[in-house]
Amino acid sequence: MTQQKRWSFIKGLWLFNWILWVKVIAASYNNFANLHSERQEMDKAFDYYNKALAIRVQIYGETHPDVADTYFNMGLDHETMKDYDTAHRCMSKALEIQRSILSEEHPEVQRTLRVIKSMPK
């Protein structure tokens, strides 16, 4: 293996590990958000959701299941807080993403539709 090939391999390996690490950080932020949500610490939950969302959008783009899940979770928490306008916006964003990548019959699409239909206007 030449020096240039070895260096290219090392750079590729470093980049791969960096991306994996950033994905783990985003998942951890989302888990912290869920934990704070369960404790009814909504300000902290939304801080962590927003951190997870920023990383996920940057890494995956706008139309990825993890991005949709983050919007869905934020929508549930806004609904819990009786902030129905924001909850509806979050759920609608989650549904838009889900419909762009999943079939209408997919369980996640159906779940989001059920939540939206059950939400007060």
Structure description:
This protein has 121 residues and is mainly α. It has a single domain, classed as Alpha Horseshoe (Serine Threonine Protein Phosphatase 5, Tetratricopeptide repeat). 83% of the residues lie in helices and 0% in strands. It has 5 helices and no strands. α1 packs antiparallel against α2, α3 packs antiparallel against α4 and α4 runs antiparallel to α5. It is elongated. The protein starts with a helix and ends with a helix. The model has no long low-confidence stretch (mean pLDDT 92).
Q: Can I get a quick summary?
A:
With 121 residues, the protein is an all-alpha fold. It has helices at residues 3-38, 42-60, 65-80, 84-101, 107-118.
SSE sequence, one letter per element: HHHHH
CA-based gyration radius: 18 Å
Low-pLDDT ranges: none
The secondary-structure class comes to mainly alpha
Q: Write the CATH architecture name.
A: Alpha Horseshoe
CATH superfamily: Tetratricopeptide repeat domain
CATH topology (level 3) name: Serine Threonine Protein Phosphatase 5, Tetratricopeptide repeat
Q: In percent terms, what proportion of residues is strand? A: under 5%
- State the end-to-end distance: 64 Å
Helix content percent band: over 70%
Largest sheet, strands/sense/barrel: none
Helical stretch tally: 5
Q: Give the number of domains.
A: 1
Using the coordinates above, name the CATH class: Mainly Alpha
Overall 3D form: elongated
Number of E-type strands: 0
